[in-house]
Design a protein that fits this description.
Blueprint: H1 11-30, E1 35-36, H2 37-46, H3 69-72, H4 74-90, E2 95-99, H5 105-116, E3 124-127, H6 131-144, E4 152-155, E5 163-170, E6 179-184, E7 190-199, E8 202-209, H7 212-220, E9 230-233, H8 237-247, E10 248-260, H9 262-265, E11 276-279, E12 282-284, E13 295-297, E14 300-301, H10 302-311, E15 315-321, H11 322-328, H12 331-337, H13 344-357, E16 366-373
Helix pairs in contact: 4-5, 8-10
Length: 391
């Protein structure tokens, strides 16, 4: 098992994880002995007070389990602010809404840059489900940009009023619970679903015939899946996009995540799927290990995102890789503008820039997609290498 090479959690962390495992086993018993993988993933990540994203443990940065682009370099968020400025200008003002703001670093750095550009939104809204992360975000905003604190508001759900402006979701879709499925040649090509069970030895998985809904959604993929392949499908994506569309009067939804087009996602080289877990900066594939202590993710099917946008009457205005997006928005100019001192911080920024742009790092693996409403002008982030034709 991959877990053999991973660091050992502390005793108190293991006790915490066992509480969550017991909660999961209780639900499995209530549901007749098994639950779909997507429900397990939902509990492991979001169970109240115990899930990975709802409990009070550090997740981001060097002391956490993974590092996101805003923690790598403030250049990421500052560059993104230039795309947001264009959109706010096209909307004649408006608000910014960020989903799952993590450490809060992206919000702080973007607001600083927007303030410098004299392009602040009317409000900066953060939809954050984790009480612990919300508290950390509030502390960071108060410490770093106290003069903008009153402009930042935290939400428990999407606003009821219609929104003009920009919605941002950076590494949000990859943490949505997914169904795991496989095609079996010994079952006449039938679809089976991965279920999670509870045994004397702990949590385990088994394959069962898929529900009619899941079979129907797999059929809608309209691709020839090889037999014996395993993969994932996100059935929560479409209603999530629809809910955002319902509140977006004018503006754009900017999605930044790692993923593929559908033909890439279900390519034979991904015959075991894309599910990945992160624990103390180690990546592995054992999703049942240490529930509540590790992140569980799946790559994004950006073709599915485009289809959901079309169903929700949103326009897919741009799709590109992260490197092309950041370069088109002027990240190199920002670095050069900071170069006067040539101090240690500037050289650190240069190293961060490489991680954001290099194909071997985040430059190719991460994609950026813009879904718009009532926006006709080309968006600057997609002027260098718009890859819409690949979807």
């Amino acid at each position: 098992m991959q877990s053999l090479s991973l660091p050992e959690p502390a005793l108190e962390e293991m006790a915490f994880s066992q509480q969550l495992q017991q909660l999961i086993c209780n639900e499995i018993e209530q549901q007749g002995g098994a639950i779909p993988f997507d429900r397990y993933m939902e509990l492991a990540l979001y169970a109240s007070g115990l899930g990975y994203y709802t409990a009070g443990m550090r997740k981001f940065g060097a002391q956490g389990d993974f590092v996101t682009a805003p923690e790598i370099s403030p250049l990421f968020s500052r560059t993104l602010a230039h795309q947001i400025k264009q959109l706010l200008d096209l909307c004649a003002g408006g608000d910014v809404l960020e989903f799952g703001a993590g450490s809060g670093q992206m919000a702080v750095d973007m607001l600083r840059e927007l303030d410098f550009l004299d392009a602040l939104p009317d409000s900066y809204l953060i939809l954050e489900l984790s009480p612990d992360l919300r508290q950390r975000q509030q502390q960071l905003v108060a410490a770093e940009i106290p003069h903008l604190r009153e402009r930042v508001q935290w939400l428990d759900r999407l606003p009821r009023q219609r929104l003009c402006g920009v919605v941002i979701a950076n590494e949000v879709m990859d943490a949505m619970p997914v169904h795991r499925f496989r095609i079996r040649d010994d079952n006449n090509g039938g679809v089976e679903e991965e279920m999670v069970t509870c045994t004397v030895g702990g949590l385990a998985t088994e394959w069962r015939p898929a529900s009619p809904e899941l079979q129907q959604e797999v059929a809608k993929l309209e691709i020839d899946l090889p037999t014996s392949c395993e993969s994932e499908i996100n059935l929560r994506l479409k209603p999530w996009i629809a809910a955002i569309s319902d509140v977006l009067e004018q503006g754009a939804l900017l999605l930044i995540d790692y993923g593929y087009t559908r033909s890439e996602y279900f390519h034979p080289q991904h015959s075991e799927g894309t599910l990945m877990c992160h624990f103390r900066h180690y990546a592995h594939a054992d999703a049942l290990l240490y529930p509540g202590l590790q992140d569980i993710t799946a790559h994004v099917d950006f073709t599915a995102v485009a289809e959901a946008a079309d169903d929700a009457a949103l326009r897919v205005s741009g799709y590109t890789n992260q490197a092309s997006f950041l370069l088109a928005c002027g990240i190199e100019r920002l670095l050069q503008s900071d170069a006067a001192g040539q101090n240690a911080e500037w050289f650190q920024q240069t190293e961060g820039l490489k991680r954001l742009l290099l194909p071997s790092e985040m430059g190719e693996r991460f994609k950026v997609m813009a879904l718009t409403r009532n926006i006709d002008e080309p968006l600057k982030g997609f002027t260098m290498n718009n890859m819409l034709h690949q979807l």
